[in-house]
Write a structure and sequence with these properties.
Largest sheet: 7 strands, mixed
Structural class: alpha/beta
Shape: globular
Strand order of the largest sheet: 1-2-9-6-5-3-4
Radius of gyration: 20 Å
Distance between the termini: 49 Å
CATH superfamily of the largest domain: Dehydroquinate synthase-like - alpha domain
Order of helices and strands: EEHEHEHEHEHEEEHHHHHHHEEH
CATH architecture of the largest domain: Up-down Bundle
Bound molecules: nicotinamide-adenine-dinucleotide
Helix content: 40-55%
Number of domains: 2
Number of helices: 13
Length: about 350
C-alpha cells in the first residue's frame, strides 16, 4: 500500500497518515501553492501544540481555540469562527486549518466552505475517529436540534495531515470510539483489516501508522468511487442509522459518536441476520471485536422503540419516506438494502432493548 493515499474528489488531495508529521504543515502548504494567511481552528485540549503550529505558520497566522465535544458542533460555535475570521479580515486566498477531532473538523470545515463563499481547508485530525473517518471525504457541517449533521456542505480539503503520535494524549474512551469506525470499515469492505484489528493490542494499535492508514484507505477508496453518496458511500453509514438516532435521543454527548455507532452496528448486524442476509457468526465475531476494543454493544435500557424509529425516519438517508440500510453479508462485504419493513425493525428493537 502507498504511504500517501490520494483522494480524487474536489481538486484532488493527498492524505498523509504518519508519525511525527504535524510539523510538516508549512512545507505541504508551499508544495500545494497555498500562500495565503493560515487560520488555525483548534481544540482547547491541544492548546500548546496548536500554538506551536501557529508559530510555524508565520506571524500573520491566527489561532482560535474552541471546546471539543459534540455540543460544540452548533450554530453558536460556527458564528464564533465566522466572527474570528471576519475580524481577522479573512481573504479568499486564506486557508483554514482544522486541527482537532471530528467536531472541529466538521464545524471549521463548514466555516471554510461558507466564509466569503468558500476558502481552502486543511484537515489535521487529532482523534482516531477523525483520522479514519471524518477528515477524509469533504462532509462538513453542524447539528440542528432537530437532527444531527442536518446543516452542511461538501467541501473537500486540500490536504489531510494525520499524525498518529498526537493520539498519545487521547483518553482511552475516545480512542475506543475511533476504533469503532475502523472496525466498521473492516466489516463493510476489508476482511484483512478486520483480522488485523482483531489481532492487534487495542491500547497500542494507534502507534501502528500502517494499520491506521489501512483503515483510512477504506474511506479514501469509497469516496473515490462515490464522492456525493449516491451509492457506494452509503455503505459507510453501517451502524449510523441506529447510531445517529441514539445519539440524538439520549442527548448529544451522552454516548460518544463511535460508541453510538458500535451499538448501531450491533443492531444492524442483527437486522441483517433477521433478514437472512448474514449468518450468526458475523454477529459473534463483531461482538467480540467491539468488546475487545472496550465498546458498548447494547442499547441502553429504557429507550422507547417508537421514539427511536421516529428519529431514524428523520435521517438524511431516508428516501421517499423509506430508510436505506447498509447491511453486512459477510465480514468484509456490505450492501445497501431497501424495503426493510418497519415492523421488522420494530420487533427487533423491542427484543434488543432492555426494559426499565
Ligand atoms: N464529516 C464526516 O464525514 C464525519 C464522519 C464521522 C464522524 N463525524 C463527526 O465527528 C464527530 C466526532 O468526532 P470526535 O470523536 O473526534 O469528537 P471530538 O472532536 O469532540 O473529540 C473528542 C474529544 O477529544 C478531545 N481531543 C481531540 N484531540 C485530542 C488529542 N489529540 N488529545 C486529547 N484530547 C483530544 C476533544 O477535545 C474532545 O473532548 C461527530 O460530530 C461526528 O458526527 C463526521
Amino acid at each position: 500500500m502507498n504511504d500517501i493515499l490520494y483522494v480524487t474528489a474536489g481538486l484532488g488531495y493527498p492524505v498523509i497518515v504518519a508519525a511525527d508529521c504535524w510539523q510538516q504543515l508549512p512545507m505541504y502548504l508551499k508544495q500545494l501553492g497555498l500562500s495565503g494567511r493560515v487560520h488555525i481552528v483548534s481544540d482547547q485540549h491541544l492548546q500548546i501544540i496548536a500554538k506551536a503550529l501557529q508559530e510555524m505558520c508565520g506571524e500573520r497566522s491566527t489561532l482560535l481555540l474552541l471546546p471539543g465535544g459534540e455540543s460544540s458542533k452548533d450554530s453558536a460555535t460556527l458564528m464564533t469562527i465566522y466572527d474570528h475570521l471576519l475580524t481577522a479580515r479573512v481573504e479568499r486566498s486564506d486557508i483554514v486549518v482544522a486541527f482537532g477531532g471530528g467536531v472541529i473538523g466538521d464545524v471549521a470545515g463548514y466555516a471554510a466552505a461558507t466564509i466569503v463563499r468558500g476558502i481552502a481547508c486543511i484537515q489535521m485530525p487529532t482523534t482516531l475517529l477523525a483520522m479514519v473517518d471524518s477528515a477524509v471525504g469533504g462532509k462538513t457541517g453542524i447539528n440542528h436540534p432537530l437532527g444531527k449533521n442536518m446543516i452542511g456542505a461538501f467541501h473537500q480539503p486540500r490536504l489531510v495531515l494525520a499524525d498518529v503520535n498526537l493520539l498519545n494524549t487521547l483518553p482511552a474512551r475516545e480512542l475506543a470510539a475511533g476504533w469503532a469506525e475502523a472496525i466498521k470499515h473492516g466489516v463493510i469492505r476489508d476482511v484483512q483489516l478486520f483480522t488485523d484489528l482483531a489481532n492487534a493490542d487495542p491500547l497500542r494499535a494507534f502507534f501502528d501508522a500502517a494499520l491506521v492508514r489501512r483503515a483510512v484507505s477504506v474511506k479514501v477508496d469509497v469516496v473515490n468511487i462515490d464522492e456525493r453518496e449516491q451509492a457506494e458511500r452509503m455503505l459507510l453509514n453501517y451502524g449510523h442509522t441506529v447510531g445517529h438516532a441514539l445519539e440524538q435521543l439520549l442527548g448529544y454527548g451522552v454516548l460518544l459518536h463511535g460508541e453510538a455507532i458500535a451499538i448501531g452496528m450491533q443492531v444492524e448486524a442483527h437486522l441483517a441476520y433477521t433478514l437472512g442476509l448474514c449468518d450468526d457468526q458475523l454477529i459473534t465475531r463483531q461482538t467480540a471485536i467491539l468488546r475487545r476494543y472496550g465498546l458498548p454493544t447494547e442499547i441502553p435500557g429504557g429507550v422507547a422503540v417508537d421514539q427511536l424509529i421516529d428519529v431514524m425516519h428523520r435521517d438524511k438517508k431516508v428516501q421517499a419516506g423509506a430508510l436505506r440500510w447498509a447491511l453486512p453479508r459477510t465480514i468484509g462485504h456490505a450492501e445497501i438494502t431497501r424495503n426493510v419493513p418497519v415492523s421488522t425493525v420494530k420487533n427487533l428493537l423491542t427484543m434488543l432493548i432492555p426494559t426499565g
